Amino acid sequence: MSALHLNFTLWLLCLGGVLYNLVVGEYPYTWSCNSTAAACTRQLKAAEESFTPHTKCKLECVSTSDQQDKGFFSTRVLWPRPKHVSGNSGKTAVVNVADLAYNGNTINNIAADDLEQLVENFKSKYSDSNSKTESGDAVEAELNFTFEVNNGTLVDFTDSSDESYELTITSSTNEDGEVSIDARVKASSYFGARHGLETLSQLALTDPVDGKTYMVTGIKIEDSPYYLWRGLSVDTSRNFISPPVIKNILTGLAAAKMNTLHWHLTDSHSFPYVSSRVPEMSQYGAYLPNKIYSADDIADIVQYAKKLGIRVVPELDAPAHVGYGWQWGPSAGKGNLVVCLGKEPWTEYCLEPPCGQMNVVNDDLYLTLKKLYTDLKESFPSDWFHMGGDEVNFNCWKSEETITDFMKTKGWKINDEGFMKLWDYYQTKAYGQLKEAREEESSKAILWSSRMTEGDDLSLLSKDDYVIQFWGTTVGDSEEAKKHKKQLKEMLEKGYRVIMSNHNELYLDCGFGAWVGAGPNNWCSPFKSWHQVYMSDIRQWIEDEKVDITETKAKQQVLGGETAIWTEQTSDSDIIYKVFPRTWAYAERLWTNPSKGESGDLGSWEEAEERLTHFASLMKEEGRGAVLSNTMKPEYCLQNDGKCVLESNGSYIKLLHPELILVVSVFHLFSLYYS
Amino acid sequence: MLVLLLACFPALIQADFAWSYKCGEDSVCQRVPLAETNGEYIPLPKCRLACKAGGTLWPFPTGEVRIGSNVVSVNVGDFAVEAARTTRLQEAVAVFKNHFKSFTAAGEAQVKVQFQISDETSDLSLKSDESYRLWIQTHNGNSIVVITALTFQGGRHGLETLSQLIQCEDQSCYMAADVLISDAPKYPWRGVLLDTSRNYFSVETIKKVIDGLSASKLNTFHWHITDTHSFPFYSKRRPRMTEWGAYSPEQIYTEEDIKDIVHYADVRGVRVLPELDAPAHSGNGYQWGEEEGLGKLAVCVNRDPWEKYCVEPPCGQMNLANPNLYDVVEDIYRDMLDTFTGSAFHIGGDEVNFNCWNTTKEVTDYMDGKNIPRTEEGFMELWNEYQEEALARFKKANGGKLKDMILWTSHMTEPEFLHYLDPSIYTVQYWESSTNKQLPNLVKQGFQVIMSNYDDLYLDCGFGAWVGEGNNWCSPYKGWQKIYMNDPKKYLAAQGVTDPALWAKIVGGETAMWTEQAGDQNAMTKIFPRSYALAERYWSDPTTGWFEAEPRLVYFNSIMEKQRGIYGNTLKPEWCVQSQGICKLNKF
Predict the structure, then answer these.
(1) A662 Cβ partners below 8 Å, 6+ apart?
(2) Contacting residues for A47 by C-beta, under 8 A, at least 6 apart
(3) Whose C-alpha in A80, A446, A634, A655 is 20 to 30 A from the C-alpha of A488?
C-alpha cells in the first residue's frame, strides 16, 4: 500500500505541481465564453489579446437564459446541482483564500471549534500561490466569511440531521476601487454548514495556468437534499481494502455531499473485523494477520467520516454469506456454527465460491451473534444496522442432517415452505439478539431484498422494523426480471421503506471479465456507464410502472439509494476508479433528483456531462483530497466544452463503429459526386 | 525461521493466525490449519516454489523445464555476479537485484551467477534470437547459476526467469536449488501500445508500463505519441508543433525524456517503437503553417459536426495539397530518428476520412489540377501519393535506409487497394476484427502481420461511452481469458488458411491502450494483468487454454504487485489466491 501511495503522490506532483511554473507567454491559447450555450472553448489567442484562464471563463460563463433565473441553476461548475440558485453576477475576482477573514458564527453556540475547523479545512483546499501576483494584474479582493449556524456542534449523523443550507456571496467596491467579498453560510446544523462550504469551494477555483484563485462575486444558493439516504456500499471481504483507501473514498463521497458509507464488512471469503468479544473470528477469518480492521482502525475511519458528515453503517451479512472466520466452533466445544463451508461442487450449495451458511439450529450461534452485535454497536455509532439476508441456499441446509432433523422435530416439511420457516426462525431470533445487544425496543434494521421479501413471505418482516435494500433489476422481460419488478412494486404498495441498489444501474463491479470461468464477462455485464447511474430514477420508475402509491408516500418510503462495489475483482489498486466518477453521478441523482422537463435540458445526462467532467478534474487536485477517478474524456474535451458530443445530442445513438463511419462517409462522398 | 516471522509481523503471533500452506494433491498449495503443518508456518511463496515445477513462471518456457523440489534460502543482494562485461548487462543485473532489496535476511546458500552471452550489444529486431538457458545447481551450501544466451536480450530474459524462481515473504527469499530451463519465444514481436495524445502520461507512468512489459518478457513498447487531440512530442527542428499541440506547456516529451525512456527500456529488454500517425489522426499541433508562410498543414482541424469529417472529435487530417507538408514531416522524422534508435518505425495510416478532403476546396482544387477524379479510387490515389512521399522522406531522413516499417490496417490494406503497398517494406498491424477477410488476404499476399484485433486486444473497451451515452464502441470489456486465447493460427484456419508457412507471416501481437478514457491514475489497471496474458500467448504459444494458466497468472499478478509495485486490475478474491484451484466452474 505504501508503494501505491508513493506512486499516487508522484502522479499528484505531476498533475498538480508542474503547471505553476510555466510562462503564459508560451501558451498560444485562451478561453472564451459562448453565452448562449454557457460553454467555454479554447481559442487561439490573437497577438494583442489578453489571456483569459479556463477557470475564470468557467466561473463567469453564465448563459443568457440562466441569468433570467429559471429557479434552478445559473452556473456550470456546481456538483451536485443545488435546489435553487439566483443572482449569479457572472463576474469573478481574484482572491487569496489563505488570507480569508473568518468572522465566526453570528449565532452563539458552544461548539464554535467544530465550525472553525470546517473553515480551516476549506482554506487548506487552496495553496498560497496568489501572493505571486505580478504587478499590473488584477488586485486581490478581500475575502470575508461568516457562519449563521443554529447549532454547529459536531454530532453523529442520524435520520433527523438537517442538511439544508443557504450560501450567499455579495461584494462591494470602495472609492479606491478595492473589492471586498462577503460569503455567508446559514444552516441549522453542522451538516448544513459543511455542505455550504463544499459548495463555496466549487465557486472559488485555482487556475492551473496562471495559478490564481478566481471567485464568483455574487450568488445566492438555497439548497437541501431530495433523498435522505445517499450512499455507497463497499465490500471488504472478497478483497481487503486498507484504511487509507477507505478514507480516500470517504473524501470523494463528502465532496459530492453523500452521507452514508455502507460497510459490507464480512462475507464467506474472509472476516477482517476484529471482535473483542469473539477474537477467533478474525484470527480464523483474516486473509493475513495484518489484513484486519482493529478497533483503532475503525474508530479512526468513523471519526474521519463523522467530520465529513457521513455515517458509517456496518453490515454483518447472515445467515448466508458467512464462512471463513466461523470455523472455530467445534474446537471450542460449541459445535458447528456454519455448515457447507468450502463445500464442493460449490455450484450446488451457493452462488459463488467459497460456500458457507449459518448452522441456524445451533443455539451457540445466537450467543455469538449477540456478542458480535454488541461489538459492532460499540465500533459504529450508526443509528442503523444492516443484517444482510441475501442469497440463502436451501440446498445447503438440506444437505445437513442436523438441520433436517431439527426441522422434523418442529414438524416442518423438508421443502421450500419448511426452509422458509427455518429462515424466519433464524431472522426472528437474530433480530431479538440485535435489540438486546443494542438495548433498544425496536432496532432500525436493513435487509437485502431476497426470497423473504417476495410475495406473501414479505409479511414475515415488520415494515416498522426493517428497511429493504433492493438489489434486483428494474428492467427487462425475462421471468427473473418480472419477478424482481413485481417484488419492488409490491414492497412499495405494501408500505415498506426502500433503499435502491438495483444492480442493472447501480452495481459498479459489472462489465469486467468473469472471475469464475471464462465469461466472456461477469454476470451483471455490461459495465454500468455513468449515464445509466445518473438516470437511475426510482420516481420515474414508479410512474412508468404504474405503482399504486401516492406522491407523498413514495417520498416517505423511498429513503434513497446506494451504488455498490462488490470486490471480487477489486482491491486497493483499482477500487477508486470503479467507484468514481459514477458514484458522483448518483450523488446528483440523490441530492437533486433532476427530472426531465423541469426546465429545458435539465434532468438529462447531456446537461450534466460537462459539469461532471469538470467536477472530476477538480477532485484530482491534492487539496481536494486527490480522488483520482476513472478518466471520462480526452483532455481536449475538458478544454473545449460542447466539442465532444454527438450531433444528434439527446437521442440514444451510440458511437458508430469506425468501419461503418468510413462506409458512411464513402457512401456520402459518392452521393455528392454523382449528384 | 519462525522467530523471524514473529519479529516481522507484529500482529502475527501463532495464536492470532490459524493458517499455514501445504502442497496437496494435484501439486496445488492450499491454506490449511497450522496443525496440519505441525504448527510451523510455511509461507505461500515457499510452498509455491517447491510444490509444482514452474508454478511461479510466467510466461511458461517453451523448451526443457526441470526444477527439483529442493529450495534454499538466499540473499539476492549478496549474489556474486561474474562476466557481465558491458554496463548494459551490469545495469540489468542491478535492476534484478533491486527487485529483492527489501529482503535482507541472510541466506543458507552462497550464490554465484555466471553469464555466457555471445553478444552483449545486440539490438532487437524481428530476427533477434531471444533464447536462453538457465542452469542452477546447489551443492554443499553453494549454488551456481549459469545463464547462457546468444544476445543481451536472451540473457536478460534468463535473469527474469531466475527472479521468478526466487520467492520471498517478510525478510526471507527462497530459491529453487536445482534447475535446468531452456527457453525461446514463439513470436518475435510482443508488445503493448500506449496512446499519449488523447490524454497525457507522465514519464513515471510510462516507465511503470515498461516495468510490466519487462517482467513478462514482452519486448515492445509501442508509443502512439501523437494524434489529432494533442501533439506532446517535442520536435527540436519544429518546436511550434508542441507550442500549438500540447495540452499545456508542461505536458510534453522532451528529447531528454525520450532518451531516458529509451535507455530505461533497453536495459529491460524492451524496444520503443515510435508512431507518427498520418495522414489522418493529425490536427492540433499543425495549425501554425499559415503564420509561418507555409500554408495550411492540416485541414478540418476541430471542424464540426465532427461526425461528417472524422471518427471521433476533434477532426483533423493532413493537407495533401500542400507540398510544404513534407518538409515538416521529414523534420519530425529526423527528430524522432535522433531519439528513437530502434530498428522499426510505425507510420500510422489508419482511418482516413475522404469526406474531409472532399469538402476542402484546397484539396479538391489540387486533385482537379492533377486530373485525379473525386471518386473512391481518386482519393486512394491521393492518399497513396502521401504514403509514397512520406516513405521517401523517411528514407532520406534515415540516411538512405528504411527500417522495419509498420502500418495500420485501413482502407488501403483491403484486398482491392493492397497493391499500393509493398510486402517487402511494410509489416501490417492488424486492428480489424478477427473474422475480417483482410487477415487471410494479407498473409497470402506476403505481408508480415502484427495482431491487434480489437475484438480481443483493445484494452479500452467496455466502459461507458465518452461521446454520447451507453457503452463505448468496442464493448464489452475484453477479459484476460479472451486475450490469452488470441491465437492467430486459429483465426487464419477459420478463414481457410491452413498452411503453416502462411501462419508464420504472423510475427506477433500487441494489446492496445487507447486513452480517451485513461490517464496516469487508471491506465495501469487497464493494461495489467491483461497484457501478461498476451505475453504468454505470444511467448509460449500454449496448446493448453486459459483455464490451465489461471492459477499461475493469479499468482504472478500478486507478485507483480508486491515485488514491483505494478498494480493491475484485481482478478479474484484474495481467497482464490490463497486457496488455489477452487475458484472455478466445475464444468471446465
Answers:
(1) B311, B351, B353, B411
(2) none
(3) A80
Query: How close B505 comes to chain A (CA, Å)?
Result: 25
| 3-class state of residue B82 by DSSP | strand
Q: Alpha helix locations (H) across A392-415?
A: 394-398, 401-410
pLDDT by 10-residue block (mean), chain B, 588 residues: 37 59 83 86 87 92 94 95 90 97 93 96 95 96 96 98 94 94 98 97 97 98 97 96 92 97 98 97 95 96 92 96 98 97 95 96 97 96 97 98 97 97 98 97 98 97 87 92 96 97 98 96 94 98 92 91 90 80 61
Nearest-CA distance B314 → chain A (Å): 7
Cell numbers representing residue B323 in the block: 507540398
Q: Distance from first CA to last CA of chain B, Å, rounded?
A: 40
Cα–Cα distance measured from residue B73 to residue A334, given in angstroms and rounded to the nearest whole number: 42
In angstroms, the Cα distances linking B373 to A674, B260, B270, B379 are 12, 48, 45, 8
CB atoms within 10 A of CB A318: 24
Annotated catalytic residue within B281, B312, B346, B536: B281
Residues of A in contact with B480 (CB under 8 A): 513
Tell me if A646 and B515 make a contact (CB, 8 A cut-off): no
Q: DSSP letter at B86? A: S
Q: Does B463 touch chain A (CB under 8 A)?
A: yes
Catalytic annotation on A391? Answer: yes
The pLDDT, as a whole number, for residue A111 is 60
The model's confidence at residue A26, banded by pLDDT at 50, 70 and 90, is low
Mean predicted confidence (pLDDT) in A471-477: 96
Taking the C-alpha atoms of residue A444 and residue A499, their distance in angstroms, rounded to an integer, is 13
- List the grid coordinates of A314: 456496518
End-to-end CA distance of chain A: 65
From the CA of B577, how many Å to the nearest CA of chain A? 10
Catalytic site residue A416? Answer: no
Helix, strand or coil for residue B513? strand
DSSP assignments along A511-546, one per residue:
TSB-SSS--SB-TT-S---HHHHHT--HHHHHHHTT
Chain B hits for A296, CB-CB cut-off 8 Å, are: none
**A295, A301, A304: which is closest to A263 by C-alpha?**
A301
> Would you state the pLDDT for residue A37?
72
Cβ separation A527–B476 shorter than 8 A:
yes
pLDDT at A305 over 90: yes
A267 classed as catalytic:
yes
| List A166, A210, A223, A267, catalytic entry | A267
Does residue A576 surpass a pLDDT of 50?
yes
User: Quick check: B24 contacting A, CB < 8 Å?
Assistant: no
For every residue of A192-239, DSSP letters joined together read HHHHHHHHHHHSEEE-TTT--EEEES-EEEEE--S-SEEEEEEE-SSS
| B467/A668 Cβ within 8 A | no
Give how far Cα A441 sits from Cα of A434, A437, A467, Å: 10, 11, 16
Sole residue written with cell 527528430: B335
- Of all residues in chain B, the one with the smallest CA distance to A571 is B570
Helices (H), B479-573: 480-484, 488-494, 500-503, 523-527, 530-540, 546-564
How many secondary structure helices (H) and strands (E) does chain B include? 20, 21
